[in-house]
Amino acid sequence: MSKSIQILDDNLINKIAAGEVIESPVSAIKELVENSIDADAKNIVIEVKKSGLELIRVEDDGIGMTNKDAKLCFKRHATSKIKTFDDLAVVGSMGFRGEALASIASVSKVEIKTSIDSVATHLKLDRSKIIFEKEIARTKGTTIDIKSLFFNVPVRKKFQKTLSYLNSEIVKVINNLSLTRPDIGFKLILNSDIKISTKPQDIDKKTAFKNRIKNLLAKDVMKNAIEVDFSENNFEIFGLISDPNFSKKTKTHQYLIVNNRAINSSIISKFIKEAYFTRIQENEYPVFALHIKIPFHFVDVNVHPQKKEIRIRELIFIKQAIKNAVDNAFENTFQKNKISRDNNFFSADFNFTKPEIKNDNFSFENIKKENIFQNFEKQLIFEKFYDIENLDLEFLKIDHFLFIETKFLRGFLDIEDDEKIVVFDLSSIFLTSLFEKVKNKEKQLKLQTLLVPINVSLNVADILFVEENLKGFLDFGFDVRIISKDQISIDATSQMLEKENIKEMFFLILEDLKHLNSTSLMDKTYEKKLATQISKIAKTKSYTEEEAINLLSSFIKNKHANVDPLGQSIFKKLNKNGIEKILKG
Predict the structure, then answer these.
(1) Which DSSP symbol is given to 1?
(2) For 446-495+499-540, CATH number?
């Protein structure tokens, strides 16, 4: 029996639309604040309780609405921004579809007070229906309260991310919006605490933009930031990029404004990274806060329900403009530094070091550890070694192993076997051990108090996230505390970490905790990313012989797998025939 086709009622249509436009309190806040920006507000106050699930209040001093418009704005596709399809090609406002308020009203209880003069309209809505109307006094502007968000769609509410994650995302959204319009003052009150407070800047847009950036970028990055100010063929790019020495392991410290709209664009981020060329390593990402002005006909903003992404035409022109802007910024910085160096040239001291005379005393131990095995490595680099699929760790005797640390290999060789050489790669062992501890948030991680605590600069969103996840960091082996509005102190860390790896590992854990907060699961893709990041630390870590033996002993005791988290064999062997071939050259 076939089912008949029916037209959905407006309330259900709005709920379905809300699933695309309003996926979380964060997207609801973004839509409301963008409406205030479009209303020419000079000051916007956002108050949030329980991450927006209990209350979102947005108050502005914009142009306000008439009684008629106040009632109409909650209807689907009611907008003042566009009238024809051609208007989409040149739309400059933050919002334009007329979907957001209708979507929000369908899944919450809404109250609005708005005025274009001294007389205001006061409305209350329940599931898009007006249940209260009154005329009140209010200065020009609009106040919207969103209460009990998703109260009538419990499944949506159930699948919201953790409150701490939502709070940090709310801070991030307001920071991004404040970058788009430095001429507007923003205040964010989160659970009665003021998290953001900026004043309108009535100065040139480039200086105002740079002033706003100071509140977002870490102090060490800001201190060494490189200024970008470039225009060419109707493209304008200005802001700050990081010195290559202050690049990061993740893309989280990238702020991109295109035509006054805060967006995510993997392609533009890729172009910026490529513009650094060999200045940064392949696995690093530049920090940047850039405002890019692109001709309207090159950009389509109508491609994402929440307008987070854009589609760009003529990518070759964008790529070239970004490359020229970054090259120009580095060239200007180089010239400034060159002038500074030239001024100090004749006052420099020149010290000549006496050439070092090598000790030619014969040592069998040196030959044994360095010459023979290093020659093995240079010729092999493991190409002739075979993976060991099954190795009984219980019968291994550590006192039979020879510890080596050369340019090509750090690990152990089993020197008691006449038939083969077995290599144990310390980097893979360290990676496996630390990965398992981090992945499982092992609570038995032994902490050591640092003689000198390490201070780390963070943006407001990350400070808030750390503050609400101190126990999570402790589970991962980091004892941290908040010391200011933009700095934390690392007081103790896992004994497995060396001082030079602590900051890098902290940022890795920060991203790891965010991921766990947002998904509650560590999926395979993220596991690989985590393992890749830890492996970079493992490859640069040095060991004393005692530390290496302890690491291998612990590894054997815990009976880990024979491959590391990246799928590389931890043990490899070379049989007798292979050894003879190498020795014969």
Answers:
(1) -
(2) 3.30.1370.100
